[in-house]
Design a protein that fits this description.
Layout (H helix, E strand, L loop, with lengths): L1 E6 L11 H8 L4 E6 L12 E2 L9 E2 L1 H11 L6 E11 L2 H8 L3 E6 L7 H7 L2 E4 L9 H12 L31 E2 L2 E2 L9 H19 L1 H4 L1
Parallel strand pairs: 1-2, 1-6, 5-6, 5-7
Antiparallel strand pairs: 3-4, 8-9
Helix pairs in contact: 2-4, 3-5
The structure holds adenine.
Adenine (ADE) binds next to strand 5.
Length: 221
């Protein structure tokens, strides 16, 4: 899986080079690159934004540096192109699984009041949102999407980990415990110490259903 990010702030992407996604990178399972859009501007002052036509607050990212960056990074149009925006389809576990099937992804991270619409049209970007709130830029949103989808790329997690967690069966995850068996007077549920796999699976299923009914009844509908 190759993931490219187009951004005005390439240094923001260091978190993806850490922990599990960083390990996937070092193992050659994921290739993660952040490209500075400013390197592609033809403006002599390196400007990448301008005032909106029609007036209004804030600045809009100009189309030329974006279109040239896309053409340089993905010259054959092999990548699925995604613009992070609160206007987009709302990202969820199903979308993460779907994106994990792709070989190449190209994320455009906007800043200021957005990007010139023509850049999105020319490059064929689909839009993706991480929720109904507005961030100062698309970088954190793109990293969230990349992290969540990489978990579904084979080899990134230990086998089975992505199947047994929240949302995998449309339910929230059951409570987990580890050693010690008693901590500050609180014991681990007896059944988990029993070694009885069927009973454990049944208990976990019941707990997952109870938690989902309590906290996210919308998931059960
Ligand atoms: N950029 C700003 N807000 C965003 C959001 N909610 N989702 C994706 N990209 C964004």
């Amino acid at each position: 899986m190759k993931i490219d990010f187009l951004t005005l702030f390439p240094d923001m992407f260091s978190p993806l080079h850490q922990s599990i996604t960083g390990r996937a990178e070092r193992a050659g399972i994921a290739e993660i690159r952040a490209h500075d859009i400013r390197q592609y501007t033809k403006d002599r002052h390196f400007k990448c934004d301008d005032v909106p036509y029609g007036g209004g607050a804030g600045m809009v990212m100009t189309p030329q540096p974006i279109v040239d960056a896309v053409r340089a990074v993905d010259p054959d149009g092999k990548a699925r192109r995604i613009y992070m925006s609160p206007r987009g389809r709302v990202f969820d576990a199903a979308a993460a699984k779907e994106l994990a099937e792709e070989n190449r992804l190209l994320f455009l991270c906007g800043h200021y009041e957005g990007v010139d619409e023509r850049a999105l049209e020319i490059c064929g970007f689909e839009e993706l949102s991480i929720g109904d709130y507005v961030l100062t830029g698309g970088e954190l949103a793109a990293m969230i999407v990349a992290d969540a989808l990489l978990r579904f790329v084979p080899g990134v997690l230990s086998e089975g980990s992505a199947d047994e967690e929240s949302f995998s069966a449309g339910l929230l995850e059951y409570p987990q415990y580890t050693r010690p068996a008693v901590f500050e007077g609180r014991s681990v549920p007896e059944v988990l110490l029993s070694g009885h796999h069927e009973k454990i699976a049944e208990w976990r299923r019941k707990k997952a259903e109870e938690l989902t009914a309590l906290r996210r009844p919308d998931l059960l509908r």
